[in-house]
Amino acid sequence: MKLPKEPFLALAAIGWADGSLQRIEAVGLLRAATESGVSGDELAEIERATKAKVTLEGLELGGMSTWDQVVTYALAAWFAQLDGVVSTSEHTTMVELGDKLGLADALRKRAAAAAFDIACLPEGGRPERYDFQKLAARLKERLPQVAAPE
């Protein structure tokens, strides 16, 4: 599951929406970015976003495939609940992200449900144990019409 840096900057914005990005969120974000093939200067930019507040404003998410948009939203759904609670501000930022991605409500719900399925696996809610490959597989099962070709 390869993604560009922008989805991870969007995740950082969700983490910061409640005013602080928790250590567990930073760990999860950096692990997700690394497992998605982000490295070098782009990974350093994401790491900076875990230390200084970022927002969705000005973040360009256009040009991504529908698959990348769905994966981004699914990761955001997982990420928003990583610290144990989805605050009102995080929920509002999730809605804003879905709007920026141009995802229909049905796609948002299926993507979030797939992320929740994987988080419910044994220790799946922990950032060091969350299985991003299983998330991609679950999304392909639930949303075959937008799945990226193998």
Rounded to the nearest angstrom, the radius of gyration is 14 Å
Biggest sheet character: none
Q: Count of helical segments?
A: 7
Strand content of the residues, in percent? under 5%
Ends distance: 10 Å
Instruction: Give the tally of β-strands.
Output: 0
Q: Report low-confidence residues grouped into runs of 5 or more.
A: none
Overall spatial form: globular
Average pLDDT reading: 85
Q: Give the SSE string.
A: HHHHHHH
- Domain module tally: 1
Describe this structure as you would to a colleague.
The protein has one domain (6-142). The chain is globular, with a radius of gyration of 14 Å. The N and C termini lie close together (10 Å). It is built from 7 helices and no strands. With 150 residues, the chain is mainly α. The model has no long low-confidence stretch (mean pLDDT 85). Helix 4 (66-80) crosses helix 6 (105-119).
Give a brief rundown of this model.
This protein has about 150 residues and is mostly helical. Helix content is about 60%, strand content about 0%. The protein is globular and about 35 Å long.
Secondary-structure topology with pairs:
Blueprint (H helix, E strand, L loop, with lengths): L5 H11 L6 H13 L4 H10 L16 H15 L7 H14 L3 H15 L12 H11 L8
Helix pairs in contact: 1-2, 1-4, 1-5, 4-5, 4-6, 6-7
